[in-house]
Design goal:
The chain has 8 helices and 13 strands. The protein is an alpha/beta fold and 277 residues long. α5 crosses α7.
Length: 277
């Protein structure tokens, strides 16, 4: 395994199963040289059970743990931003980046057809209901990517989070044919636009560790287009427990190499740098 860093990690401040310190200790045991926490940012939505409620406590503890373990591992403070949050008047607004963040990941977990909110990665049945509200899978995907384009255009986050998250359940609960040229062309139309914003695309193994998928996000056809467009990528595990800090990193490195990638991005104290795979 050449990947020595992971910056997509959750803890008990959001929906993670382990404390910050427990996660750091697991990262050290996994021989990582750096580890970044990206808890789900506060959205103020009543239905969002994953958001950090104690934002100050989160950053304060991260800073304390960063100092405690500074001789063993580099700790980065981050957030996983949601594409929409609840504004002062109750409507949807774009998120803001907390200045205490060393990095941010931009993700979309929710959709809102006809004014109804659905979480697209909670249960397959909820995803089915969302698609029914849109009327078709094609309309759902158009809405998902159109919203993400508005997000990436407005907010300068660093990393594109699990860009095809809506395929989380697709292996066991199919909603679409990912090998269909029609589907691929629809998605690549948006990928080509997102790439223009010069963000890093994560290659995320989180759904593998939780038993939903056998391969990381995004699908290989997207990775092939990212390689063609020379878009930077980064392996992450989206870990929610000490048992998945480096989940399937070896296999993911091989996947990327087979596609043609020779390097990935890594966060350092001087910023993101390219390192060999």
């Amino acid at each position: 395994m050449t990947t020595r860093s992971n910056i997509h990690a959750h803890c008990t401040y959001c929906d993670g199963k382990n404390t910050i310190e427990e996660m750091i200790q697991a990262a050290i045991k996994s021989n990582l040289i750096s580890f970044g926490f990206s808890s789900h940012a506060h959205t103020d939505y009543d239905f969002d059970d994953c958001q950090v409620m104690d934002v100050d406590g989160y950053f304060n503890e991260l800073e304390a743990m960063k100092q405690k373990y500074r001789d063993q591992i580099i700790i980065f403070k981050g957030m996983e931003l949601e594409s929409l949050v609840k504004g002062p008047d109750g409507g949807d607004v774009l998120p803001e980046i907390d200045p205490r963040c060393d990095f941010t990941i931009g993700s979309c977990h929710f959709t809102r057809p006809n004014g109804k909110y659905f979480c697209i990665d909670y249960k397959p049945e909820m995803l089915d209901d969302a698609i029914k509200e849109f009327g078709s899978v094609e309309d759902f995907i158009d809405d998902y990517f159109t919203g993400y384009l508005s997000f990436v255009d407005a907010i300068p986050f660093d990393v594109v989070g699990h860009i095809d998250l809506y395929t989380k359940f697709n292996e066991k609960h199919p909603i679409l044919d990912q090998d269909s040229k029609k589907y691929q062309n629809q998605v690549l139309h948006y990928i080509d636009q997102i790439v223009k914003y010069d963000r890093i695309f994560e290659v995320n193994t989180g759904a593998i560790s939780r038993g939903y998928r056998s391969t990381p996000y995004p699908h290989p056809f997207i990775l092939e287009r990212l390689l063609e467009k020379k878009a930077p990528v980064m392996i992450t595990s989206d870990t929610h427990s000490v048992n998945s800090v480096t989940c399937c990193f070896d296999e993911t490195e091989r996947l990327l190499k087979d596609i043609g990638f020779t390097e990935q991005m890594q966060l350092t104290e001087k910023g993101f740098v390219s390192v060999p795979l």
